[in-house]
Amino acid sequence: MGFIKCPRCELNYIQEGEQYCSVCKREMKGEMKDDPFELCSVCNENPALPGKDMCLFCLKEMGKNPDRTPDVEDGEDASAGAELELEGVSMMDEITPDLSADIPERELGEIDRELSLEETAEEEEENARREEDDEEQM
Questions:
Q1: Which parts of the chain sit beneath pLDDT 50?
Q2: Segment Disordered: which positions (predicted)?
Q3: Measured distance CA(71)–CA(53) in Å, rounded
Q4: What kind and span of H or E run contains 14?
Q5: What residue segments make up the domains of the chain, in order of their start?
């Protein structure tokens, strides 16, 4: 007994004796498969509310204490994160890789020549001139 594609969806395979695949049968009966629920992003214990990323308990706790952020643990001070001062981009040292240590000087020169845009432009100009000369000769 072989397998054939479902005549309704043409996606799933069924055995030759069956009329429709199990997915199509569920859809025709009106049954919908329940999606797995997501856990609360704060406590990771309770299921999250639909359309939210937190459970009812954590949402109520956030409502009671609105200045508390979900990523701060009870033992940590919330103001400690606010005091952290970041350097501006202009004050940071620019990170430049040391290419001389990775690639020998001889090979680096070869790579530069191979990737040179000037040489490529010259070759393109020469090819264009040749094509023009060929067209003029015809």
A1: 72-81
A2: 66-138
A3: 13
A4: strand 13-15
A5: 1-33, 38-70, 105-137
Amino acid at 126: E
pTM, whole model, 2 decimals? 0.26
Angstrom distance (rounded) from CA 21 to CA 17: 11
- What's the CA gap between 124 and 114, in Å, rounded? 15
Per-residue confidence (pLDDT) for residue 30, from 0 to 100: 79
Q: How far apart are CA 62 and CA 70, in angstroms?
A: 8
Distances 137 to 115, 123, 126, 127 between C-alpha atoms, Å: 34, 21, 17, 15
pLDDT tens-place string over residues 46-69: 888 888 888 888 988 888 776 655
